[in-house]
Design goal:
The protein has 490 residues and is of the alpha+beta class. 33% of the residues lie in helices and 21% in strands. The strands form seven sheets. Strands 11-10-14-15-17-16 form a six-stranded mixed sheet, covered by helices on one side. A four-stranded mixed sheet has the order 1-2-4-3. Strands 5-6-7 form a three-stranded antiparallel sheet. Helix 7 packs across helix 8 and helix 13 crosses helix 15. The longest helix is centred in the N-terminal third of the chain and has 16 residues. The relative contact order is 0.08.
Length: 490
């Protein structure tokens, strides 16, 4: 046996381990073994009989459900130990007023945005379906509404009769308005005149960066009804950030973007549809050699990046918004988005497949640029020429620190604490997870360049402060750290 998402070992029992049981109940269930060391070896458990008698009532009294507590025997040694089996609970389970989930082999406390999302999911409430009684049809933009109707009919996904039907009728059919005439969050985000009235940070922010995270050269903020946002973002990228080549067919000039238009649009639409609208804004960082698109919100529970690359059921975070995007032809059949991205990038354009990963409490797509642009010098080069270190078109070393380098150790730099804050984000992470995300292998460098300066500045704190060397030790951002995170995200 080994510890994983569904398994936890404890040499002895402590009441604090109730949070592990809470995490199993809030996740996919699991087993906690008492009398087993970190290596899966059974050890002597002196109070085994007392625990077998007391634990069932203790678990029910403190976290509100019954778990199976059983005596188990190790065949190799004949020694007894305890196995506690926890099933997934339909309702949200807390311990001492806090909520926990399993992430890999660790237990993490939910806070802020992630806690709000978790509670809504447990209550089977979707944010985009929540109604806003204070809103009226006057809050909707007629141009955005007309654009949706015309586009959906043109794509033959909405009946032409929708043009002659009242706005209320169509909204009700799409479940964007309830029977009492109250508009949903989805309706206000999709067609609202001022979407910033209905959620804190609905913007899609784009920035052009030079040598580092601190080297922001120029940026744009797109804030508009969501039905218009994909086109607005694509227009901004095409005109200010990405490289296009031109050719002629007869007298017609044909413009070709450096990356496939349809594949890029699919990635952008996924970010808009699946983002967590109670969190921060979508962030797109354009570098000389890559484009990063990050949106707030983790993958659905039980989903991994590998799940997305295979045939899978559709589980949109905002199903009402997703349905409107489908009717407009902005997305294809449910669950086929990543297949389409592969088709556009790899099969048709013969480019590398974008890399997708969960990072900083959200989801990131990283797209390699085949034509690199050095914005500082205004020069362009194909990939093989840019990779030549002797070619002056590079302008400067492409191995600069952008705050996301992985796979090799970096020395202490002025941005180390900022990088640590960005990596932890709204999560609670153990040292190994943080070092992996930072791309460093040396514990000493992590302690000296990242952890200690961040602690001294009051940006991070320990989950077990009285046992700093505990194997279960994890780190989270303090209120001061969260303020810095907000500043760095802007």
């Amino acid at each position: 046996m080994r510890e994983d998402q569904h398994t936890e070992f404890k040499r002895i029992w402590k009441d604090d381990y109730l949070k592990e049981l809470c995490a199993f109940a809030n996740s996919q269930g699991g087993m906690l073994y008492v009398g087993v060391d970190d290596n899966g070896k059974v050890v002597e458990l002196k109070n085994l009989n007392a625990l077998l008698e007391n634990l069932p009532n203790k678990i029910h009294a403190n976290i509100g459900f019954f778990a199976d507590v059983n005596r188990l025997t190790d065949k190799a040694t004949g020694m007894d130990y305890i196995g506690i089996t926890v099933q997934t609970q339909q309702e949200a389970i807390s311990y001492n007023g806090k909520y926990y989930i399993r992430s890999g082999s660790t237990t993490q406390e939910l806070r802020g945005q992630e806690l709000a999302t978790f509670l809504m999911r447990k209550m089977k409430v979707q944010w985009d379906a929540i109604t806003r009684p204070e809103a009226t049809l006057d809050d909707l933009d007629p141009k955005a509404w007309k654009f949706f109707i015309d586009t959906a009919i043109d794509k033959k996904r909405l009946n032409a009769s929708a043009r002659s039907e009242s706005q209320e009728t169509v909204l009700r059919k799409l479940k964007l308005m309830n029977k009492d005439g109250e508009l949903t969050n989805a309706a206000l985000m999709l067609f609202g005149k001022d979407i910033e009235c209905w959620t804190a940070l609905p913007a899609f922010r784009i920035g052009r960066f030079g040598a580092s995270q601190a080297d922001l050269i120029f940026d744009d903020t797109v804030v508009c009804p969501l039905v218009l946002m994909p086109s607005e973002v694509m227009w901004t990228l095409r005109n200010r950030y990405l490289v296009a080549t031109y050719s002629y067919k007869g007298l017609d000039r044909i413009e070709t973007l450096e990356m496939p238009d349809e594949g890029l649009r699919e990635i952008i639409c996924n970010a808009i549809m699946h983002r967590e609208y109670t969190g921060t804004f979508i962030q797109m960082r354009v570098w000389d050699d890559i484009v990063e698109l990050w949106n707030p919100g983790r993958l659905p529970q039980d989903f991994t990046v590998q799940t997305l690359m295979q045939k899978h059921e559709s589980m949109p975070r905002n199903p009402l918004i997703a349905k409107v995007f489908f009717l407009m032809g902005l997305i294809e059949n449910w669950g086929r988005g990543y297949e389409k991205i592969h088709e556009e990038f790899v099969t048709k354009a013969h480019l590398q497949m974008p890399v997708f990963e969960e990072v900083r409490g959200g989801f990131m797509a990283t797209i390699k640029r085949e034509v690199f642009q050095d914005v500082q010098y205004g020069k362009f080069a194909p990939k093989e020429q840019y990779d030549d270190p002797q070619n002056p078109v590079r302008g400067h070393d492409r191995g600069h620190d952008r705050g996301h380098d992985r796979g090799h150790d970096r020395g202490h730099d002025a941005n180390a604490v900022h990088r640590l804050v960005m990596v932890i984000g709204t999560q609670t992470l153990q040292r190994q997870e943080i070092m992996s995300k930072l791309g460093i292998r040396s514990r000493d460098k992590f302690r000296e360049n990242y952890k200690e300066p961040a602690e001294a500045a009051g940006y991070i704190d320990l989950t077990i402060p009285d046992k700093p060397k505990s194997k279960n030790q994890a780190y989270y951002l303090t209120a001061k750290g969260l303020e810095l995170l907000d500043q760095l995200s802007k």
